[in-house]
Amino acid sequence: MAARRASGFLIYRFFSNEIQYLLLRASYAGYHWTPPKGHAHSGESDFETALRETREETGYIEKDLIIYKDISRTLNYRVKKKPKVVTYFLAQLKDPFLMPILSEEHTEFKYLTKRETILLSGYKNFGEMIEYFDKEIRKIHSNAQINL
User: Fold this and answer.
1) Contact 65, 94 (CB under 8 A)
2) For the chain, which end, N or C, has fewer CB atoms within 10 Å of the first or last residue's CB respectively?
3) Per the UniProt entry, what is one GO biological process (predicted)?
4) What are 37-58's pLDDT values in tens digits?
């Protein structure tokens, strides 16, 4: 059975001298928290899917983000006993005050610290991905005047 493909962006911002990550709460069964993501359409690349899904779910478009296309992580897991593959690309929100405009797929959003993001997700592989992205962000911004 072929795995369902999905992709999105792990979006972060600098706010109050800290790194914060965007999570959205699903409006359907489980009401789980994830970054913006969704299933690929036929013929669509992972990156194209991430751009489209982020626009649909948050209103953020490519010009709102600094996208690190070469920094990504892929998670493999099962949903209802079916394999799923989700690729996340790293993206920084340019304007830390720009709030998302949610679609009907989500009921709320939160910008959270690394620790809060990992705790809210509740999944080991997701937490490992956040740790990886956090290290990459710290490398990118190692000369910035923020409390990293």
Assistant:
1) yes
2) N
3) AMP biosynthetic process
4) 999 999 999 999 999 999 999 9
Question: Which of these ranges, 3-7, 8-12, 70-74, 140-144, has the smallest mean pLDDT?
Answer: 140-144
Rg of the chain in Å (alpha carbons):
15
48 contacts 5 by C-beta, under 8 angstroms: no
Identify the weakest region by mean pLDDT among 49-53, 70-74, 83-87, 110-114. Answer: 83-87
Fold (CATH) for 4-140? Nucleoside Triphosphate Pyrophosphohydrolase (3.90.79)
Separation between Cα atoms, residue 143 and residue 148, nearest integer Å? 10
Q: Which residues contact 121 (CB under 8 A, 6 or more apart)?
A: 23, 33, 34, 127, 130
Please state the pTM of the whole predicted model. 0.92
What distances in angstroms separate CA 120 from CA 7, 22, 58, one per listed residue?
20, 11, 19
**What single-letter amino acid sits at 106?**
H
59-to-33, 75, 99, 103 alpha-carbon distances in Å? 18, 24, 9, 8
